[in-house]
From TrEMBL:
Principal subcellular localization: cytoplasm
Domain Aminoacyl-transfer RNA synthetases class-II family profile: 144-551
Molecular-function annotations in GO: aspartate-tRNA ligase activity; ATP binding; catalytic activity, acting on a protein; nucleic acid binding; transferase activity
Location of the region described as Aspartate in the Swiss-Prot/TrEMBL record: 199-202
Annotated residues for binding of L-aspartate: 175, 221, 446, 487
Species, as recorded: Anaerosacchariphilus hominis
Protein name as it appears in the record: Aspartate--tRNA ligase
UniProt xrefs under NCBIfam families: aspS_bact (TIGR00459), PRK00476.1 (NF001750)
Catalysed reactions, as listed in the record: tRNA(Asp) + L-aspartate + ATP = L-aspartyl-tRNA(Asp) + AMP + diphosphate
Length: 592
């Protein structure tokens, strides 16, 4: 019994007929038939129940009471004459003997209709998130999140992992995104940073002798929002294992995740262990993406040899990639939209032609291909009725554009995508280094703390661009859930790895003092990963936006419009932490 209620609004059934009960909840609506007859819907966290007002006295108690006020209703349960099979409580109703207002809603108009809040403007929903969450369709996403987190915790504990929390106030470290900084009151001019991830702490736990660690870890990064990424903070299933290999990490997640996805997912089918292993090189060549959606059966083919010199300007001297779609029935309007969407997503054009039912090349750039028809048909394995989408550019550009085209084709035109399942895969064998697009210098490709696959030998003898790392990504339905790695636990190998990007031993010691020193006291080989909880729940719920599964999310510009954050603070608060606000010169000129 809670708050003097005898039952929840989803609990009463026909067997309760004749009982006197007390319900509490929100006054959802009243269909008033006359001055002494009306049908009231009461809603709580669990569901709804209909109360039938049959006296002027009870109706008077609702006079001037706005919907969304909280009520306590005491009355007798009886069988409904007009049953509602769509509701669990649809066979009964409550006839009130007493109605009390517990919390009055003081507004005649709401910012949106509660049960249709998802139709409202997003900023309005976020400003009044406490009302938005009253909508059962919105609330159930947060309940799902809670259930998933509880299931993950249970499963990880059963696999022998200890849940250990790591610090929130720590030091700034180069993780790849901007830090959130926290000024120190006791140490003027110095700052804490909120952790972008517990990376160093969990590795230090391994050197401390803990064997298996996990936590549902909060991470903080000052980065822009995307549909699958919330600005500010996010949560991940952070885990690390001592004396472990890449395959040990894979085995744990292949055992933990499929049951969670099958139990709580929109679809009840998920990949079974072992998940497919796809090298980074093959993923880019075959799918045009390092996070391929394996529900789509289309693949990317190389068409450089047969089409680069066909006379079509954009192909000259470029890598050309092709995506072949069999039995293609789409109209020219659909084709144009597919090409336009590809260009919007990638900034690069897509081209096309078809092999019609008579075996003739038609449409798009077919006039440039006709003279070498037989070569192209053989190279791409074409059959009458096939549609060929094409991309061109430098190798990586052509690959990524083809990957976007493949995904758009699979989602737009029926016949090549199995939607109602969860397809997992591991992307493995990432390059250790790459040439930075902006710097033109050698940089770490993925994670600087990863172990090179050939150890010290490869670092000393191989071209850096030919060195692979024990790094891996977990992908589900085209969404990257996580990156992980076998860690570089050897100080000598670590120093050598950083030397190749121009950082010496002193730099490593300065940037990562605790971890470097700890490794010098004998560290176990260790490996880990950290699947994103927010993205996981988004996939399970079938939502397009990650904000739908976060209780109190920020908006796209990293503002909490409900609480008014970020906000100005009192000058004394700034003085306490030795901070002075300096106006930007551009702002001053604008004010002038």
């Amino acid at each position: 019994m809670f708050q003097s209620r005898t039952h929840t609004c989803n609990e009463l059934r026909l067997a309760n007929a004749g009982e006197t009960v007390t319900l509490v909840g929100w006054y959802e609506n009243l269909r008033k038939v006359s001055k002494n007859l009306g049908f009231l819907i009461l809603r709580d966290f669990y569901g709804t129940t209909q109360a039938v007002i049959e006296t002027e006295e009870m109706m008077a108690k609702l006079s001037g009471v706005n919907t969304e006020s909280t009520l306590s209703i005491t009355g007798v349960v009886r069988e409904r004459s007009s049953k509602n099979a769509a509701l669990p409580t649809g066979e009964i109703e409550v006839v009130p003997t007493d109605i009390q207002v517990l919390g009055r809603c003081r507004y005649n108009e709401l910012p949106f209709e509660i049960n249709r809040s998802k139709e409202a403007d997003e900023n309005t929903r976020l400003k009044y998130r406490y009302l938005d969450l009253r909508n059962p369709a919105v609330k159930e996403r947060i309940v799902l999140r809670s259930n998933v987190v509880a299931e993950l915790r249970r499963s990880m504990t059963e696999h022998g992992f200890l849940e250990i929390t790591t610090p929130i106030l720590t030091c700034s470290s180069p993780e790849g995104a901007r830090d959130y900084l926290v000024p120190s009151r006791n140490h003027p001019g110095k700052f804490y940073a909120l952790p972008q991830a517990p990376q160093q702490f969990k590795q230090l736990l391994m050197t401390s002798g803990f064997d298996r660690y996990f936590q549902i870890a909060p991470c903080f990064r000052d980065e822009d929002a995307r549909a699958d990424r919330s600005p500010g903070e996010f949560y991940q299933l952070d885990m690390e294992m001592a004396f472990a290999s890449q395959e040990d990490v894979f085995a744990v997640l292949e055992d933990v995740l499929p049951p969670v996805f099958e139990k709580y997912g929109t679809y009840n089918t998920a990949s079974k262990a072992p998940f497919r292993r796809i090298s980074y090189h093959d993923a880019m060549e075959v799918y045009g993406s390092d996070k391929p959606d394996l529900r789509i059966d289309l693949v990317v083919q190389d068409a450089t040899e047969c089409l680069a010199d066909c006379g079509f300007g954009p192909f000259e001297g470029q890598t050309v990639k092709a995506v072949v779609f069999s039995d293609f029935k789409a109209t020219r309007k659909v084709i144009d939209k597919i090409c336009a969407d590809t260009e919007v997503q990638t900034g690069n054009k897509a081209y096309w032609f078809r092999l019609d039912e008579n075996g003739e090349l038609v449409g798009g750039i077919s006039k440039f291909v006709t003279e070498r028809k037989e070569q192209v048909v053989q190279a791409l394995g074409l059959k009458p009725g096939d549609f060929v989408g094409l991309t061109a550019g430098k190798r990586l550009v052509a690959q990524k554009t083809a990957g976007a085209l493949r995904k758009i084709l699979g989602n737009t035109v029926e016949g090549h995508m199995t939607k109602e399942c969860y397809e997992f895969c591991w992307i493995v064998d990432f390059p250790m280094y790459e040439i930075g697009e902006e710097s033109g210098e050698l940089e770490f490709c993925h994670n600087p703390f990863s172990m090179p696959q050939g150890g010290m030998k490869d670092l000393e003898e191989k071209d850096p661009l030919d060195i692979y790392a024990y790094q891996y990504d977990l992908v589900c339905n085209g969404v990257e859930l996580s990156s992980g790695a076998v860690r570089n636990h050897d100080p000598e190998i670590m120093v050598k790895a950083f030397e190749l990007v121009g950082l010496g031993e002193d730099d490593v010691k300065a940037k990562f003092p605790a971890m470097y020193n700890a490794f010098c006291y004998g560290a176990p080989p260790h490996a880990g990963i950290a699947p994103g909880v927010d993205r996981m729940v988004m996939l399970l719920a079938g939502e397009e936006s990650i904000r739908e599964i976060i209780p109190f999310p920020m908006n796209k510009t990293a503002q909490d419009v409900m609480m008014g954050a970020p906000a100005t603070v009192d000058p004394k608060q700034l003085a306490d932490v030795h901070i002075a606000i300096v106006k930007d010169e551009k702002e001053e000129k604008t004010e002038e």
